[in-house]
């Protein structure tokens, strides 16, 4: 009877994720949180740079300020994941981080100098960047054995990005750039609101103590995987930081630029809907290499052909691969490799190395490159960077690590 009950529960759970309205599970609560979190990103990435430009900041200043958003992602997730690993309630910490991000963000309404905005952005993003890694772990724990359906939850984040980037892009053709300030505030309040309705998953409990550093050094190929993540995200920095300003200089309207941002994320949604069909451990290395190669092509298209709307649209279609596919593979790898006591810290480490360190270094460097050499050279360097990542993935992420971890996992089950 017990086995039958468990089987029925799993079947119902899978059915629910395919038809979300069927059961009172946390699908819509988690999806809503992803929606509003990435809606915030849909405002910050395309339009925070133009807002800073409207205040008179140089390209290097904008690059430095945008780097702060990424730099806090290096530190914050690791601190908060350590707290989560030593707490009985992960979501309680998420709620606290979300609330503090709202409080510190209010500082943007009280000053416009470089150092004031640097301080405010550092404080509010320190807490904002702490939210997503813990939510990712909670989502995967709720999915349990159905972790291949992660994309069906995560796609709502992409939809949130599409909605906010489209609507704000349209609005900014008629309203001043500082409209982004209240919009970001509304999104941050939405994040806090939805965290109130999400409970901890069963596996979010007091972990065993252990050293994640010792675990990582057992698998040298894991260091190569993190290097690939770092390089790929660093290559995205000119796009995330300057894409809107870059296209504005060629006469594109904010509405059209918002549509281009949305097209990229729309195809990301399509990929998330179908990813579970081909996302298998044996294919991880091939998919990483493919993602890096296509990303390099994408940066060359944007940098060399900004006047061709057709090629710009095609480059945005490739966003499904340059971000969506790579991120899906990376999250699947992290979830399989960092289990038990290392779960939260493994996900935090991925965010810190890729979006954090990679994004921060990329933003800093691209800010100076854009000022010194212009967009064409900057995007060419970004392309070269991600081609190097493809080479690293080819020679150093060989698939042996996946097999070894899976063997260790099955051995552990057999020993029990």
Task: Characterize the structure shown.
This protein has 416 residues and is mostly helical. The chain has one domain: Growth Hormone, Chain: A (Up-down Bundle). Helices cover 79% and strands 0% of the residues. α12 packs antiparallel against α13, α12 packs antiparallel against α14 and α15 packs antiparallel against α16. The radius of gyration is 21 Å and the shape is globular. The N terminus is likely disordered.
CATH topology: Growth Hormone, Chain: A
Architecture in CATH?
Up-down Bundle
**Helix and strand run:** HHHHHHHHHHHHHHHHH
| Poorly predicted sequence stretches spanning 5 or more consecutive residues | 1-24, 204-209
The Cα radius of gyration reads 21 Å
Shape verdict:
globular
User: What is the typical, i.e. mean, pLDDT?
Assistant: 84
User: Which superfamily, in CATH terms, is the homologous superfamily?
Assistant: MFS general substrate transporter like domains
Name the quaternary structure. single chain
């Amino acid at each position: 009877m017990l086995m039958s009950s468990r089987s029925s529960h799993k079947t119902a759970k899978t059915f629910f994720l395919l038809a979300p309205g069927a059961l009172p599970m946390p699908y819509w609560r988690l999806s809503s949180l992803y929606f509003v979190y990435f809606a915030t990103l849909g405002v910050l990435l395309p339009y925070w740079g133009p807002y800073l430009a409207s205040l008179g900041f140089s390209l290097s200043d904008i690059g430095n300020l945008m780097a702060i958003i990424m730099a806090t992602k290096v530190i914050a997730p690791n601190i908060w994941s350590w707290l989560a690993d030593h707490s009985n309630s992960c979501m309680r910490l998420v709620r606290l981080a979300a609330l503090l991000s709202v409080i510190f963000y209010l500082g943007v309404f009280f000053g416009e100098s470089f150092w004031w905005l640097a301080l405010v952005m550092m404080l509010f993003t320190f807490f904002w960047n702490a939210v997503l890694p813990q939510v990712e772990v909670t989502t995967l724990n709720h999915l349990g054995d159905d972790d291949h359906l992660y994309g069906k939850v995560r796609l709502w984040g992409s939809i949130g990005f599409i909605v906010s980037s489209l609507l704000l892009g349209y609005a900014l053709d008629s309203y001043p750039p500082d409209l982004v300030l209240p919009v970001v505030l509304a999104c941050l309040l939405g994040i806090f609101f939805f965290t109130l309705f999400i409970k901890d998953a069963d596996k979010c409990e007091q972990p065993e103590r252990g050293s994640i550093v010792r675990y990582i050094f057992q698998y040298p190929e894991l260091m190569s995987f993190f290097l690939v993540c770092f390089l790929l995200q660093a290559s995205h920095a000119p796009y995330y930081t300057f894409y809107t300003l870059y296209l504005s200089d060629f006469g594109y309207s904010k509405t059209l630029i918002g549509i281009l941002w949305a097209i990229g994320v729309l195809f990301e949604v399509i990929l998330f809907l179908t990813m579970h069909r081909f996302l298998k451990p044996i294919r991880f290395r091939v998919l990483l290499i493919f993602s890096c190669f296509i990303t390099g092509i994408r940066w060359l298209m944007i940098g060399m052909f900004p006047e061709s709307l057709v090629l710009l649209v095609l480059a945005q279609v490739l966003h499904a691969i340059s971000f969506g596919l790579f991120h899906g593979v990376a999250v699947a790898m992290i979830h399989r490799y960092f289990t038990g006591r290392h779960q939260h810290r493994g996900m935090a480490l991925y965010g810190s190395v890729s979006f954090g360190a990679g994004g921060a270094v990329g933003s800093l460097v691209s800010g100076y490159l854009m000022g010194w050499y212009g967009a064409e050279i900057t995007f060419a360097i970004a392309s070269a960077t991600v081609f190097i990542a493809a080479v690293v993935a080819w020679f150093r992420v060989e698939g042996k690590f996946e097999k070894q971890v899976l063997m260790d996992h099955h051995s552990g089950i057999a020993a029990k």
